[in-house]
Amino acid sequence: MARERQNGTGGTELGTFLRAHRNRVTPEEAGLPVGPGLRRTPGLRREELATLAGVSVDYYVRLERGKETNPSPSVVDALARALRLHPAEHAHLRELVVRGAGRAAVETDSLPARTVRPGTELLLENLRPFPAYVISRTMDILACNPGGLRLFAGMADWPANRRNVVRYVFLHPAATKLFDDWDEQLRAVVGRLRALYSLEPDAADLTELVGELLDKSPEFADLWERYDVRWHTHGSKTFHHPEVGDLTPGYQSMQLEGTQGQRFIAYYAEPGTPDHDKLVLLDMSGAEQKPASPVEGMH
């Protein structure tokens, strides 16, 4: 984690974000002429981005180095356009500026509560046979119905306090074969975690998980450096499940209001379809081998 500790302030994190995304935009994508000779910069040069955003080179350099942390909204929008940011990335850039300028305080003294409300647990049970689960802001599985855990092949073999979606995607041997678009799964979970970490770099729950994954997964480390903060909240996902075969259920992710970052994720399929039948089988097999509550042993 030593290389990330230097990013412990909003200003430096702002610079890290700008540098990572500057390196991803080519001159051709930005509509700039490419001169002769070899470019040492993988993406745009600082002076090129400054010109595109309509700011001085000196001002932009100070932004990247964390010496300037309070650009105006118009400058932020101009940088977003020049960097060709996705709306989610644009919103994150604005948030970094707010944090870096000290206009919003982030409380990291206490860890988020891990308790799942009884009403939410009742919803999990009544959604069966549709797989559903509740995750923490760091994507620990806090509660689930039988199919919700069984969907992640092999996850039930891990102790309850190790069941984490990011950890599973990167470190569980079954994950590479389970997800049809494994690479996209990697990008999505890293994007959500990266966005949160950049706003609370000293939070214990985040630093512990990020440190573990940086040490154990080269794929995680590479994606972490890219600083992609996009993720998905709904759609469909194809699984190659060792128990029930191939299935492509729809899914919806929802923020649980009144909690510290908990989210509710549910998968579904039309009754009478093969995918629905396979979700029923997952639910039945999960119920037969009902795991201990994921909340037990979490700390």
UniProtKB/TrEMBL annotation:
Segments passing through the bilayer: none
Short name of any one Pfam family annotated for the protein: MLTR_LBD
What PROSITE patterns does the record tag this protein with? HTH_CROC1
Q: Which SUPFAM superfamilies match?
A: lambda repressor-like DNA-binding domains
Q: Which CDD domains match?
A: HTH_XRE
Q: Gene3D superfamilies per the record? A: 3.30.450.180, lambda repressor-like DNA-binding domains
Q: Where is the HTH cro/C1-type domain?
A: 43-90
One molecular function GO term is: DNA binding
**Which InterPro entries does the UniProt entry name for this protein?**
Cro/C1-type_HTH, Lambda_DNA-bd_dom_sf, MLTR_LBD
Q: What is this protein called?
A: Transcriptional regulator
Q: Which organism is it from?
A: Streptomyces diastatochromogenes
